[in-house]
Amino acid sequence: MHHPHDPFVRVRGAREHNLRGVDVDIPRDALVVFTGVSGSGKSSLAFGTIYAEAQRRYFESVAPYARRLIHQVGAPKVGDISGLPPAVSLEQRRSAPGSRSSVGTVTALSNSLRMLFSRAGEYPAGADRLDSDAFSPNTAAGACPACHGLGVVHRTTEELLVPDPSLSIREGAIAAWPGAWQGKNLRDVLDALGHDVDRPWRELPARDREWILFTDEQPVVTVHPVREAGRIQRPYQGTYTSARRYVLHTFSDSRSQTLRARAERFLRSTPCGECGGSRLRPEALAVTFAGRTIAELAALPLATLADVLDSHRDGAGGESARVLTADLLTRIGTVAELGLGYLSLDRPAPTLSSGELQRLRLATQLKSGLFGVVYVLDEPSAGLHPADTEALLTVLGRLKAAGNTVFVVEHHLDVVRGADWLVDVGPRAGEHGGRVLHSGPVAELAAVSESATRRFLFGPLQGGAREQRTPSGWLRLRGVRRHNLRGVDVDFPLGVFTAVTGVSGSGKSTLASQVLAGAVASGAAGTGQADCASAEGLSAVDRLVRVDQRPIGRTPRSNLATYTGLFDVVRKLFAATEAARKRGYKAGRFSFNVAGGRCETCQGEGFVTVELLFLPSTYAPCQDCGGGRYNSATLEVRYRGRNIAEVLDLTVEAAAGFFREVPAAQRSLRTLLDVGLGYLRLGQPATELSGGEAQRIKLAGELQRVRRGCTLYILDEPTTGLHPADVEVLLRQLHGLVDTGSTVVVVEHDMDVVAGADWVIDLGPGGGDAGGRIVAAGRPGEVAGAEGSRTAGYLARARR
Ligand code: ADP
Ligand code: ADP
Ligand code: ZN
Ligand code: ZN
């Protein structure tokens, strides 16, 4: 029985994923941290059980129509939860913002600024006051009519579409056309329309060239395809689409990332001439506040915007302006406190890291006025410099003080130490985890010998007494300019492990992932580098590998097995079984991506998309195959006692045993084990993997390649999502790469990793315009003593 004054959330019999009938009591009105190695079941408990159940109850109460859908999506596997308040999730994965959203829309700060302009802006003489909507590029009332509020116009030219005019259309003159059947179709349509597809492009009449590339007409003609490979093809009705139309359409509407990227190669985008890129109507741009347009204010770093607003607190507009300004200032203050004062309101949300985005949402929640809610967060310290961790704890504390409960899945030990209550899950990953080892005050974990977290919280620091390596050479970049880097000179040592440090927004990612990666990539291709005046030593690098946290695929069709190539090996094994040969099943039969062997109800996805009104769509298991993806005939074929669906359900660890005698499978399985991913299932859809897991899968892919020459690896915060025990495993791998002659550059906040590096480049001193300089560079010991570096003190502490 739930007692209204019972201060605990009581979970009974939680069996989601790997949880083994977990019973746990967690206090409300507290800051609770969930810890455990990666794959131990923390998210399955915090998000998969507690949050999911709160969500389910909420839907049931507000939307009876949604019940059937909820039933389809499935309730979390849990016996009972009592004392559960409504929950709000600030999870990082699966919450990609739309392409039109920005810092201003995510935080709703733009709304207030627009209100301020509407009520208290200075209008040109005789102009009518505008509604606040008129200051938004995302409404018809505000959008610049020339670019529809996009700020850029996409153009294409004959040179882009037809790079080699000596070719005929049949030879592929129109490079922008799609490949395969569609391309042939367009060619045959042109032929049927009477164009000469065998003459070199440049010899065609100018009017025809213009029409072929740019027309908006879409004529339909009967096409009589020529015989191909001896097969007679039937006539059909073909529609013509000009190259420009095809490219623009693909670029704006295609759901395929690859196709969009390909289309983009044939486009040049230029700022819109009408609005100068500000995306707004001229009437809106004529209004100013503190002497600036709303577009100008939205382009300022938030910290600067706050200064401008502050100095105009008592300006025109009267009481309502004062109230709006004061409100804006408090809200911007919270964002700045979370280390994000360098962002501007107009910064597109898709260019933010997932850590930045989550902290923005967190800052926004503080003003929501909600209380009695459980907030569930996923590693809010991701991307945060140790100097800013204190502020994070303060903000979490304020959420709690407002009458809420805060649950965070977190690895950062300073955050763990700051919690009121600790739930430690483990002891290890997957089937070796799934138990709650400790639920209580942090200090009491010291008595729990099974815990993998205990050693790091209480044990003596095992200082990285690694012998420091000597660089084998240098990459010297001069006059680096991009974002907030304004003409700096940087030297990267080769053949060693380098850590790039600095507060959030200081320019680390820009320097490592963009400038350095770009210089090396273009240096290898022999082209110039746009981001730096000169670069020296590039020829010493044979290969560049960027291991980032982007998903390995965006649909449930890609998974661990398809991504690593392991699936090809497995399908061949199945095709070679006697049962398969007898039935004439080839390897393709065992693919869920083509018709034949797969379940046709879900077309091999195992899931069907469920559209919930007003909510992001979710996936529910297919009723026919129950998520198995294959039809029953395919599943009758077994390899060593298991069918293909059962094999995809194996964890990497189990598969390593199962495929013991298959060398081709062993290679990828071993490297996945080496990077600590033994707990993942082979068929786990890409959409269920975290950024950190995606990054480690890519790293495993790299490790299994045969290496020659000097490779440069660039990793952006590889420790995100990793428990200190997982970090140890990862570091062993990365240092192993350096020992075999490669160069590793990581952007990193974990000071234990930085202390173990051979070289440190510290950026700053602040974020945004207050950063972008090299504050210190040298051995960790040197940087730990550098003056004016916000990293130095924390690094010194980690070296002790
Ligand atoms: P953590 O948050 O501690 O890293 P998770 O809760 O994400 O761990 O995962 C715990 C276990 O559950 C792992 O073995 C993982 O592979 C498995 N798992 C996670 N998500 C799913 C899912 N959607 N379906 C099946 N198994 C899953
Ligand atoms: P860090 O990696 O140290 O957190 P970044 O390199 O991401 O810092 O950012 C450095 C500066 O460049 C910041 O002021 C940031 O706002 C800006 N910046 C980064 N990426 C973009 C982008 N895609 N568009 C505009 N500005 C950017
Ligand atoms: Zn415009
Ligand atoms: Zn199905």
TrEMBL record:
<keyword id="KW-0862">Zinc</keyword>
<dbReference type="InterPro" id="IPR017871">
    <property type="entry name" value="ABC_transporter-like_CS"/>
</dbReference>
<keyword id="KW-0067">ATP-binding</keyword>
<dbReference type="InterPro" id="IPR027417">
    <property type="entry name" value="P-loop_NTPase"/>
</dbReference>
<keyword id="KW-0227">DNA damage</keyword>
<dbReference type="InterPro" id="IPR004602">
    <property type="entry name" value="UvrA"/>
</dbReference>
<keyword id="KW-0479">Metal-binding</keyword>
<dbReference type="Pfam" id="PF17755">
    <property type="entry name" value="UvrA_DNA-bind"/>
</dbReference>
<dbReference type="InterPro" id="IPR041552">
    <property type="entry name" value="UvrA_DNA-bd"/>
</dbReference>
<comment type="similarity">
    <text>Belongs to the ABC transporter superfamily. UvrA family.</text>
</comment>
<keyword id="KW-0963">Cytoplasm</keyword>
<keyword id="KW-0238">DNA-binding</keyword>
<keyword id="KW-0863">Zinc-finger</keyword>
<keyword id="KW-0267">Excision nuclease</keyword>
<keyword id="KW-0234">DNA repair</keyword>
<keyword id="KW-0228">DNA excision</keyword>
<feature type="domain" description="ABC transporter">
    <location>
        <begin position="468"/>
        <end position="790"/>
    </location>
</feature>
<dbReference type="InterPro" id="IPR003593">
    <property type="entry name" value="AAA+_ATPase"/>
</dbReference>
<keyword id="KW-0547">Nucleotide-binding</keyword>
<keyword id="KW-0677">Repeat</keyword>
<dbReference type="InterPro" id="IPR003439">
    <property type="entry name" value="ABC_transporter-like_ATP-bd"/>
</dbReference>
<protein>
    <recommendedName>
        <fullName>UvrABC system protein A</fullName>
    </recommendedName>
</protein>
